[in-house]
Amino acid sequence: MKNFFSLLLFILSVFSPSAVWGASVNLRDMDFSRVHPTVRIKDIADIEGARPNQLTGIGVVMGLNGTGDKAPMAMQMMKNMLQQFGVTVDERSIRSKNVAVVSLTAELPPYARPGQTIDLNVNTMGDAKSLQGGTLLQAPLKAADGNIYAVAQGAVLVGGYTASGGAATSTKNVPTAGRIPNGAIVERGVPTDYAEGGQMGLLLRTPDFTTAQRISDTINSVFGAVAYPSDAGRVVVNLPGQYAAAPTAFLAKMEKLEIQPDTPARVAVNERTGTVVMGGDVKISSVAVAHGGLTVSVAEDPNVVQPNALGGGQTAVERRTDITVDENGTSLIAMPSTTTVRELVRVINAIGATPRDVIEILQAINEAGALHGQLVNM
Length: 378
What we know:
flat, six-stranded antiparallel barrel, alpha+beta, 3 domains, four-stranded antiparallel sheet, 6 helices, single chain
């Protein structure tokens, strides 16, 4: 019988901080005074209108070594392809396992121009076993509007393999998915007008009202009163008069400005992997955490007892049971109010908790209403 830990939480009115600071932990030399670093605007915000676009298509991969599709779909694709080159064949006469029908996906980045190349992902659609050694024939890539924006072709690179024999099969990674670096040529660009009417927008990757206001204040301190936050995720910027004809020059200078972003206090836990990530703004109210371990060991040690040679007795088995109870020293750790990440780490290390124990402790602190932050279960 083993009890890994017992958890007791209750709100205390007054605690001495010495119970926390007396613990010796390996993170005591780390500086948590600056919770959020200073970063550039370009690293936390995107230009409105400058966005990627998804492209999809269907193609045929040729040259497979007997690992292609067996379904009629591949034969129909081959028939249609041959007809485009003026060759008419009967679908029943096409019998090949060296062909596979694949789906194609790519991302058209902003500012892409005709003639540039983009990477391409290739995945089987049928029952093909492997794309190793195959070559994709020319196939168009369309966007959601139905227009063709790129054309793909090239040798498929597969990061795995499959080998089979009469009684065994060996497979590494996923041989039915591959990639063609620079495998698609852009045929049509997407217009990007990010400064229409002398105004542009900055879209925060992590919306936050405080961060949006700081971005606006920083821009205004350098270029004048030209920026204001419209909401938590968007900052509107009017082009200064001297940059009306050169918005790119303004963006190049603006995106280098540095601010200190602000984020909500969150604790992310993953019970499957035992991962715990705590934000620097997470605080807790005054609580006490009790963590102890109790181990009960029961061992049977039978002992054979021989009678006296002249006593006329019988040989018997004497049962001997040894019971050992080992109760580790249970520690009651007090955490004062407004405890930050540094103190929380000290306490958790002081009670000798494992990452999975930490998750249970944090969940219990949250249930007790002492965790001031959002607990996110991944």
